[in-house]
Amino acid sequence: MYQALVKRVFRSIAVLLLLLPAVSLPAQVNVTSSYSAQALASRLAGEGITVLNPVLNCPSKANGLFTSSTGSPGIDSGIVLSTGYVASVTGVNGVDGLSGSLASYNFGAAGDPALNSLSGQSTHDACALEFDFVPRGESVNFQYVFSSEEYINATCGPYNDAFAFFISGPGITGQKNMALVPGTNIPVTINSINSGNPGPGYTLANCYAMGPGAPFTSYFIDNSNGPYITHKGMTQVLD
How far apart are CA 74 and CA 214, in angstroms? Predict the structure, then answer.
Protein backbone atom coordinates (compact mmCIF):
# COMPACT_ATOMS: atom_id res chain seq x y z
CA MET A 1 0.00 0.00 0.00
CA TYR A 2 1.27 3.45 -0.93
CA GLN A 3 0.45 6.85 0.50
CA ALA A 4 0.03 9.99 -1.58
CA LEU A 5 0.07 13.52 -0.23
CA VAL A 6 -0.74 16.34 -2.63
CA LYS A 7 -0.08 19.91 -1.50
CA ARG A 8 -0.61 23.31 -3.06
CA VAL A 9 0.31 26.68 -1.59
CA PHE A 10 0.47 30.37 -2.44
CA ARG A 11 2.20 33.09 -0.52
CA SER A 12 0.48 35.76 1.56
CA ILE A 13 -2.67 37.37 0.16
CA ALA A 14 -1.38 40.81 1.13
CA VAL A 15 1.27 40.61 -1.55
CA LEU A 16 -0.99 38.91 -4.08
CA LEU A 17 -3.21 41.98 -4.06
CA LEU A 18 -0.39 44.04 -5.52
CA LEU A 19 -0.93 42.41 -8.92
CA LEU A 20 -3.20 44.27 -11.32
CA PRO A 21 -5.68 42.87 -13.88
CA ALA A 22 -4.90 43.00 -17.57
CA VAL A 23 -7.28 42.15 -20.44
CA SER A 24 -10.32 39.97 -19.82
CA LEU A 25 -11.10 36.88 -21.86
CA PRO A 26 -13.37 34.01 -20.76
CA ALA A 27 -11.54 31.09 -19.21
CA GLN A 28 -12.21 27.68 -20.74
CA VAL A 29 -12.60 25.47 -17.70
CA ASN A 30 -15.70 24.65 -15.65
CA VAL A 31 -15.10 24.26 -11.92
CA THR A 32 -17.29 23.17 -9.01
CA SER A 33 -16.04 23.43 -5.43
CA SER A 34 -16.38 21.94 -1.95
CA TYR A 35 -15.88 18.20 -2.31
CA SER A 36 -15.04 15.55 0.25
CA ALA A 37 -11.61 13.99 0.61
CA GLN A 38 -13.03 10.71 -0.71
CA ALA A 39 -14.47 12.33 -3.84
CA LEU A 40 -11.25 14.18 -4.64
CA ALA A 41 -8.96 11.22 -4.00
CA SER A 42 -11.15 8.85 -6.01
CA ARG A 43 -11.26 11.27 -8.96
CA LEU A 44 -7.50 11.79 -8.84
CA ALA A 45 -6.72 8.08 -8.57
CA GLY A 46 -9.13 7.00 -11.30
CA GLU A 47 -9.92 3.44 -12.28
CA GLY A 48 -7.77 0.52 -11.21
CA ILE A 49 -6.71 2.06 -7.89
CA THR A 50 -8.27 1.43 -4.48
CA VAL A 51 -8.34 4.57 -2.31
CA LEU A 52 -8.22 4.28 1.49
CA ASN A 53 -8.16 6.73 4.43
CA PRO A 54 -8.48 10.02 2.50
CA VAL A 55 -7.89 13.20 4.51
CA LEU A 56 -8.39 16.76 3.26
CA ASN A 57 -6.80 19.75 4.99
CA CYS A 58 -8.06 22.60 2.86
CA PRO A 59 -10.73 25.33 2.93
CA SER A 60 -13.89 24.01 1.26
CA LYS A 61 -13.91 26.68 -1.45
CA ALA A 62 -10.24 26.00 -2.28
CA ASN A 63 -10.81 22.50 -3.66
CA GLY A 64 -12.93 21.19 -6.48
CA LEU A 65 -13.37 19.26 -9.70
CA PHE A 66 -12.92 20.65 -13.20
CA THR A 67 -13.71 19.82 -16.80
CA SER A 68 -12.48 21.52 -19.95
CA SER A 69 -14.39 21.42 -23.22
CA THR A 70 -11.28 22.48 -25.15
CA GLY A 71 -8.71 20.30 -23.41
CA SER A 72 -6.95 23.36 -21.99
CA PRO A 73 -4.80 23.63 -19.94
CA GLY A 74 -3.70 20.26 -21.29
CA ILE A 75 -5.85 18.02 -19.08
CA ASP A 76 -9.53 17.57 -19.89
CA SER A 77 -10.74 16.87 -16.33
CA GLY A 78 -9.50 16.32 -12.80
CA ILE A 79 -9.24 17.93 -9.38
CA VAL A 80 -8.21 21.47 -8.41
CA LEU A 81 -6.36 22.39 -5.22
CA SER A 82 -5.80 26.09 -4.63
CA THR A 83 -5.21 28.66 -1.91
CA GLY A 84 -8.05 30.86 -3.08
CA TYR A 85 -11.49 30.13 -4.50
CA VAL A 86 -11.42 27.50 -7.24
CA ALA A 87 -14.86 28.47 -8.61
CA SER A 88 -15.69 32.13 -9.19
CA VAL A 89 -18.44 33.79 -7.15
CA THR A 90 -19.66 37.38 -7.11
CA GLY A 91 -16.72 39.59 -6.21
CA VAL A 92 -14.13 36.80 -6.10
CA ASN A 93 -12.37 35.19 -9.08
CA GLY A 94 -11.55 31.51 -9.09
CA VAL A 95 -9.35 29.66 -11.54
CA ASP A 96 -12.31 29.74 -13.95
CA GLY A 97 -12.53 33.54 -13.88
CA LEU A 98 -11.60 36.05 -16.55
CA SER A 99 -8.13 35.65 -18.00
CA GLY A 100 -6.02 38.57 -16.82
CA SER A 101 -8.17 39.19 -13.73
CA LEU A 102 -6.86 38.68 -10.21
CA ALA A 103 -7.67 35.34 -8.58
CA SER A 104 -6.83 35.84 -4.93
CA TYR A 105 -8.44 35.27 -1.54
CA ASN A 106 -7.16 35.11 2.04
CA PHE A 107 -8.71 32.21 3.96
CA GLY A 108 -6.39 32.85 6.90
CA ALA A 109 -5.40 29.18 6.93
CA ALA A 110 -2.02 27.83 7.98
CA GLY A 111 0.86 27.03 5.68
CA ASP A 112 2.71 23.73 5.47
CA PRO A 113 6.14 22.85 6.94
CA ALA A 114 7.15 20.63 4.01
CA LEU A 115 6.30 23.34 1.50
CA ASN A 116 8.13 25.92 3.59
CA SER A 117 11.23 23.80 3.03
CA LEU A 118 10.64 23.42 -0.70
CA SER A 119 9.90 27.08 -1.40
CA GLY A 120 12.39 28.54 1.07
CA GLN A 121 9.64 30.79 2.44
CA SER A 122 6.91 30.76 5.07
CA THR A 123 3.74 29.55 3.38
CA HIS A 124 0.08 30.42 3.90
CA ASP A 125 -3.33 28.95 3.01
CA ALA A 126 -1.99 25.49 2.19
CA CYS A 127 -4.36 22.95 0.61
CA ALA A 128 -3.42 19.30 1.18
CA LEU A 129 -5.05 16.03 0.13
CA GLU A 130 -3.69 12.82 1.65
CA PHE A 131 -4.73 9.22 0.98
CA ASP A 132 -3.50 5.63 0.87
CA PHE A 133 -3.88 3.73 -2.37
CA VAL A 134 -3.43 0.21 -3.68
CA PRO A 135 -2.84 -0.11 -7.45
CA ARG A 136 -4.07 -3.18 -9.26
CA GLY A 137 -1.19 -3.04 -11.73
CA GLU A 138 2.56 -2.56 -11.38
CA SER A 139 2.66 1.19 -11.98
CA VAL A 140 0.62 4.37 -11.58
CA ASN A 141 0.90 7.74 -13.30
CA PHE A 142 -0.40 11.14 -12.19
CA GLN A 143 -0.41 14.22 -14.42
CA TYR A 144 -0.71 17.80 -13.21
CA VAL A 145 -0.48 21.45 -14.20
CA PHE A 146 0.89 23.99 -11.71
CA SER A 147 -0.36 27.57 -12.09
CA SER A 148 0.05 30.79 -10.13
CA GLU A 149 -0.96 34.44 -10.00
CA GLU A 150 2.63 35.24 -9.05
CA TYR A 151 3.85 34.47 -12.53
CA ILE A 152 5.00 37.35 -14.72
CA ASN A 153 4.93 40.15 -12.09
CA ALA A 154 6.67 38.29 -9.25
CA THR A 155 8.85 35.81 -11.14
CA CYS A 156 12.29 35.38 -9.53
CA GLY A 157 11.13 37.35 -6.51
CA PRO A 158 11.34 36.37 -2.84
CA TYR A 159 7.83 34.83 -2.83
CA ASN A 160 8.03 31.35 -4.27
CA ASP A 161 4.71 29.55 -4.82
CA ALA A 162 5.16 25.78 -4.70
CA PHE A 163 3.47 22.47 -5.43
CA ALA A 164 4.36 19.02 -4.09
CA PHE A 165 3.19 15.45 -4.61
CA PHE A 166 4.67 13.29 -1.87
CA ILE A 167 4.53 9.51 -2.04
CA SER A 168 5.61 6.85 0.45
CA GLY A 169 5.35 3.08 0.63
CA PRO A 170 7.18 -0.16 -0.20
CA GLY A 171 10.58 0.48 -1.77
CA ILE A 172 10.52 4.21 -0.94
CA THR A 173 12.58 5.69 1.88
CA GLY A 174 10.56 8.26 3.80
CA GLN A 175 8.46 10.57 1.62
CA LYS A 176 9.50 11.27 -1.96
CA ASN A 177 8.33 14.40 -3.77
CA MET A 178 7.24 13.42 -7.28
CA ALA A 179 6.56 17.02 -8.37
CA LEU A 180 10.03 17.79 -9.69
CA VAL A 181 11.29 19.57 -12.78
CA PRO A 182 11.75 16.67 -15.25
CA GLY A 183 15.21 15.14 -15.09
CA THR A 184 16.18 17.00 -11.91
CA ASN A 185 15.70 17.00 -8.15
CA ILE A 186 14.41 20.59 -8.23
CA PRO A 187 10.86 21.15 -6.91
CA VAL A 188 8.17 22.75 -9.06
CA THR A 189 7.81 26.40 -8.05
CA ILE A 190 7.41 29.73 -9.83
CA ASN A 191 11.15 30.31 -9.50
CA SER A 192 12.15 26.96 -11.00
CA ILE A 193 9.77 26.99 -14.01
CA ASN A 194 9.02 30.33 -15.66
CA SER A 195 9.66 32.51 -18.72
CA GLY A 196 13.21 33.39 -17.67
CA ASN A 197 12.24 37.05 -17.38
CA PRO A 198 12.30 38.42 -13.81
CA GLY A 199 9.34 40.43 -12.58
CA PRO A 200 9.73 44.20 -12.15
CA GLY A 201 12.39 44.99 -9.55
CA TYR A 202 13.68 41.40 -9.33
CA THR A 203 16.73 39.64 -10.78
CA LEU A 204 17.43 36.10 -11.90
CA ALA A 205 19.37 35.40 -8.69
CA ASN A 206 16.38 33.86 -6.87
CA CYS A 207 15.65 31.65 -9.88
CA TYR A 208 19.28 30.54 -10.26
CA ALA A 209 19.25 29.63 -6.56
CA MET A 210 16.70 26.86 -7.24
CA GLY A 211 19.44 24.71 -8.78
CA PRO A 212 21.45 23.98 -11.93
CA GLY A 213 19.53 24.85 -15.09
CA ALA A 214 16.89 26.97 -13.38
CA PRO A 215 14.77 28.64 -14.50
CA PHE A 216 13.41 26.00 -16.89
CA THR A 217 11.61 27.94 -19.59
CA SER A 218 10.59 25.04 -21.84
CA TYR A 219 7.96 23.85 -19.34
CA PHE A 220 6.31 27.27 -18.94
CA ILE A 221 3.14 28.66 -20.57
CA ASP A 222 2.54 32.43 -20.45
CA ASN A 223 -1.20 32.88 -19.89
CA SER A 224 -1.14 36.61 -19.09
CA ASN A 225 -3.44 37.35 -22.04
CA GLY A 226 -4.46 33.79 -22.76
CA PRO A 227 -7.72 31.86 -22.85
CA TYR A 228 -6.90 29.02 -20.48
CA ILE A 229 -7.45 29.92 -16.82
CA THR A 230 -7.38 33.03 -14.62
CA HIS A 231 -3.77 32.70 -13.50
CA LYS A 232 -1.07 34.60 -15.37
CA GLY A 233 1.12 31.57 -15.99
CA MET A 234 1.27 27.81 -15.68
CA THR A 235 3.41 24.81 -16.47
CA GLN A 236 3.09 22.37 -19.30
CA VAL A 237 1.43 19.10 -18.30
CA LEU A 238 3.92 17.34 -16.02
CA ASP A 239 3.93 13.86 -14.50
Answer: 23
| Separation between Cα atoms, residue 55 and residue 150, nearest integer Å | 28
Q: Residues 119-123: contacts with CB within 8 Å, 24+ apart?
A: 119/9, 119/160, 119/161, 119/162, 119/187, 119/189, 120/160, 120/209, 121/11, 121/158, 121/159, 121/160, 123/9, 123/10, 123/11, 123/162
Q: What is the pTM of this model?
A: 0.86
User: 135-188: per-residue pLDDT in tens?
Assistant: 887 778 888 999 998 899 999 998 888 889 999 888 888 889 999 999 999 999
Q: Are strands 233-235 and 147-148 parallel, antiparallel or unpaired?
A: antiparallel
Mean pLDDT, the chain, integer = 83
